[in-house]
Amino acid sequence: EPDVTIVSGLKDMVVFEGDNVTFRCQVSHENARDVEWKLQDVALQNNEMNEISVEKGKIHTLTLRKVTEQDIGTITFRVGPHTSTA
After folding, report:
1. With respect to CATH, is domain 6-85 assigned 2.60.40.10?
2. Pick from 5, 41, 59, 79: CA 20 to 30 A from residue 29's CA?
3. What is the pLDDT of residue 84?
């Protein structure tokens, strides 16, 4: 299985409280396994507040809905040994 790397990393975002924010990270291969999103070192799951999806097979997205002050912090995307933060 080829080593999946990060082609295009996360970008820092500034949003207002109550808004939604979307982070995108592009990887080198489709169907990447061992992918994880974190906020302040806490693993995020797909639920009503966090939407985790994959577009066109290679673009992994995380949308945080109706952000609050508690959502301030570092977002981390990890695929295998590679990470990107914003």
Report:
1. yes
2. 41
3. 98
